[in-house]
Specification:
Structural class: mainly beta
Radius of gyration: 27 Å
Helix content: under 10%
Number of strands: 42
């Protein structure tokens, strides 16, 4: 059979557009590095002093330095919100130490008057930056430049994801798919204040890598109203900042197991009003995805890309920033044993090019306006050879996106008020071809479609600080139009109270969530019901998901070095989003279950820096259950949606891993050398197996036998079920219906082998999964298939700074 379609749907921009333009709306900048601090240094007589200025923080863990000019002025740019200690030092004067709070992007000015003192070569300041920000009710977890730079070597496309999974609440499934607190399709990335909402796992889009970024910020609760659409978890990525004036370059090289070779190079130039950054990156590996077999067949991957950033202070009140990035990834789809024997080869590529512009104007010492724009194109392709089994697949899909966002921020002594919104248009395209290999060039299905989506968001929010009490209060409006049209109003509340006597912060939050359907393969799944395929019963439009997120918790310093974060959360969903697979193609599409509830507890102990030791321990306990029937998606015979279409059942969500642990200890035996050891543990995901007692055809015989013996031995010429090696079966607990726990013990040692002023050469040797344990991520489910984590990995990294 043959079917094709080309349609274009243009949706009106909705009645809120005039208000959008009037407000210069929306942004997502509250948690990114937009702060600015101007420092003026004088002596007791008021004369300028060209001193050294350093801003140090442990909430967040961040530091920045600058040199005051001959007029005693220094500017510290791109600062994240938080509480800091400012240290000003100049020989012949006493050191000056002042507390500083950065609450928004509104620039601040501070004057420091140095007092005369004895000339000393070095002065040690005993005061430490605070471990706790008592007036921040929703604090993101953060990994700074040092953590990113020292991340253990890994295979291509996983360095940033590896940092995220050290935080509590984040689960890594097969092929580097992130699940925040049990949510599917619900991770939002924000790159320098610009959100992207599509699936960013390495099988769908080119990966983000640490070499491009200064910090990774994680937010899973107490989410300000400026954030919308994908809110299971927010990952805000801040690109590299310039710490020093003049020219600075960096080259990072890595080689290791699985023939992995990675490299990046960057150059920065900073002047008084101008900062220019350029970056290149590329690499290859023979273990790109998580394979279904121990042999790791056909798993080569490579990537390349570049980025450029220009930041220009047009005047003392106006700043203009351009940011451009382009990345490409190409890889093979790993074969299982049957596919390898047949000679299958499937290739996939993904390419993304994005350009951003950001204009910022300071109206006064209390008010700042910001407007951002972005255009982005993403393309993903899949093609097969004629030996592919069980089906031949060819796909070309992608989208071209345009967005305009902006905000207005007004900061006072007790309030930080912000209002904004955004307009986002997506031109989505999908082409798909399906055939049986032995019937080529005849095809069973040819599909093509184009649509345009329109999304509008508006918000107002206020951060309140009154004595020991702090609050983030806001409300958001969203409009969405693609295959469905829907609107939502979402209130957000985050409260905290600081118990000064106990140095303890108590907090609670409520977030109302509106999540539009994911765009990945949405047109295919919605149109397939009209193709006349025998195995397709029906399709129901995927509805928007709505949820209520609750969290309560506490934060407390333990002594002068350790901070405790503990929280309990629960989330309830209506139209909970999951995915199903289109026949045997491996191409997934979204479906929705009627309801779901996810509940969990998270604890993190962190020692940001204490003498020469830093460490953290993160623990998550989570339980998630969904309830059918399926309320949206494509109903394929034998698929999850069809089986649960008219049935009310309660079952674990696919990301229901009950216990997850990540820990690391880092020690500096010498100022130019460090050692670290870490562990990762997961109690195991659910296994989707056929019910041996279920007699679907009524003949008295089981159609499927998922016992370990059958899975290992069931293979004949008429029904070639792939035998599964005993080593993999041993990693599955069939009685509990779960994969057995996974565990990885990791080590790293690094040293600056050469150092002179701002130039250095650093060598780092890493060992992952030192015990070479076989860790099974997913096991032979209807949708996930079998996926194996990497075995022992050794890598060597060389980092040059000059």
């Amino acid at each position: 059979m043959h079917w094709s379609a080309r349609r274009t749907l243009v949706t009106p921009l909705f009645f809120a557009l005039p208000l959008l333009a009037a407000l210069l709306t929306a942004a997502l900048s509250a948690q990114v590095m937009d702060g600015r601090l101007e420092v003026k240094v004088t002596d007791p007589s008021g004369r300028p002093v060209p001193a050294s200025v350093r801003l140090e923080g442990r909430s967040p863990d961040f530091s920045a330095t600058a040199e005051a000019d001959d007029e005693g002025r220094a500017a510290l740019r791109r600062l994240p919100p938080g509480v800091y200690q400012l240290l000003v030092r100049q020989p012949g004067f006493e050191d000056a130490v002042e507390p500083v709070e950065i609450r928004s992007a509104v620039p601040q000015t501070i004057e420091i008057q140095l007092q005369l003192g004895a000339v000393r070569d070095a002065v040690t300041v005993e005061a430490e930056p605070p471990l706790l920000d008592p007036l921040q009710p929703s604090r993101p977890m953060r990994a700074g430049s040092r953590q990113l730079s020292e991340t253990l070597g890994t295979t291509l496309g996983r360095s940033t994801i590896d940092v995220v999974t050290t935080m509590p609440g984040w689960l890594l499934e097969a092929n580097a798919v992130l699940h925040p607190r049990g949510s599917e399709y619900d991770t939002q990335y924000v790159v320098d204040g610009m959100p992207v909402y599509d699936n960013r796992s390495i099988a769908f889009a080119p990966a983000f890598e640490n070499s491009e970024f200064e910090a990774v910020n994680i937010l899973t609760a107490g989410i300000p109203a400026e954030y919308g659409r994908r809110l299971g978890g927010v990952i805000a990525l801040d690109t590299r900042r310039a710490n020093y004036r003049g020219h600075r370059s960096a080259v990072d090289l890595q080689g290791g197991s699985y023939d992995t070779y990675l490299g990046s190079a960057s150059h920065q130039y900073a002047a008084e009003r101008t900062v220019v950054s350029l970056g290149l990156q590329g690499g290859q590996t023979d273990r790109y995805l998580d394979p279904p077999s121990l042999e790791n067949f056909t798993n080569h991957g490579s990537s390349s890309g570049f980025n450029a950033r220009l930041e220009q202070d047009l005047t003392d009140r106006d700043r203009l920033t351009f940011y451009l990035r382009s990345n490409h990834a190409g890889f093979l789809v790993p074969n299982d044993l049957v596919q390898q024997a047949a000679g299958q080869r499937q290739d996939r590529t993904s390419a993304e090019t994005a350009g951003q512009i950001h204009y910022q104007h300071t109206f006064s010492s209390r008010a700042l306006g910001s407007v951002r724009g972005m255009v982005r194109d993403l393309t993903s392709r899949l093609w097969s050879n004629t030996l592919s089994t069980p089906v031949y697949v060819n796909q070309d899909r992608g989208f071209r996106e345009g967005a305009v966002i902006g905000d207005l921020t007004v900061q006072g002594e007790h309030h930080t008020f912000k209002a904004g919104g955004d307009l986002r248009l997506n031109n989505i395209r999908e082409r798909f071809l399906l055939a049986e290999p032995d019937e080529l060039p005849e095809t069973d299905l040819e599909f093509g479609d184009k649509r345009r989506s329109t999304e509008v968001g508006l918000f107002v929010q206020d951060q309140i600080r009154l004595g020991r009490f702090a609050a983030n209060l806001g409300v958001r409006f969203d409009h969405y139009a693609l295959l469905i049209e829907d609107n939502a109003i979402s209130p957000r509340v985050a409260l905290s109270y600081y118990v000064r006597e106990a140095d303890l912060q108590l907090y609670a939050s409520y977030d109302r969530i509106f999540q539009p359907p994911p765009i990945e393969n949405l047109l295919l799944s919605s149109g397939a019901a009209g193709l006349g395929l025998d195995n397709v019963d029906d399709a129901v439009a995927v509805p928007a998901s709505r949820a209520n997120f609750f969290e309560v918790g506490l934060r407390k310093p333990l002594g002068r070095a350790v901070r405790l974060d503990a929280s309990h959360y629960w989330r309830t969903f209506r139209n909970y989003i999951d995915d199903d697979v289109f026949f045997n193609t491996g191409i997934s599409f979204p479906i929705t279950f009627d309801t779901a509830r996810i509940e969990g507890t998270e604890v993190r102990l962190e020692m940001p820096r204490w003498k020469r030791v830093s460490s953290f321990v993160s623990y998550s306990n989570m339980m998630g259950r969904a309830t059918s029937p399926v309320t949206g998606g494509l109903f394929i015979q034998g698929g999850e949606a069809e089986e649960l279409r008219d049935v009310v059942q309660h079952f674990p969500i696919t990301q229901d891993q009950r216990n997850t642990v990540a820990a690391q200890v880092r020690v500096e035996p010498h100022r130019r050398m460090w050692l670290s050891a870490g562990v990762r543990y997961g109690s195991g995901l659910p296994v989707e197996l056929e019910d041996d007692a279920d007699d679907d055809d009524g003949d008295g015989d089981d159609d499927e036998d998922d016992s370990p013996e059958a899975l290992a031995d069931d293979e004949d010429d008429d029904n070639p079920v792939q035998p599964i090696p005993q080593a993999i079966l041993d990693r599955v607990n069939f009685e509990r219906g779960r994969v057995r726990p996974n565990f990885s013990l990791d080590f790293s040692v690094g040293a600056r082998v050469w150092e002179r002023e701002q130039r250095s050469a650093t060598l780092q040797v890493d060992l992952r999964n030192a015990t070479d344990r076989l860790n099974v991520i997913n096991f032979s489910g209807l949708f996930s298939g079998t996926a194996l984590a990497p075995g022992r990995q050794v890598s060597v990294q060389l980092k040059l700074r000059f």
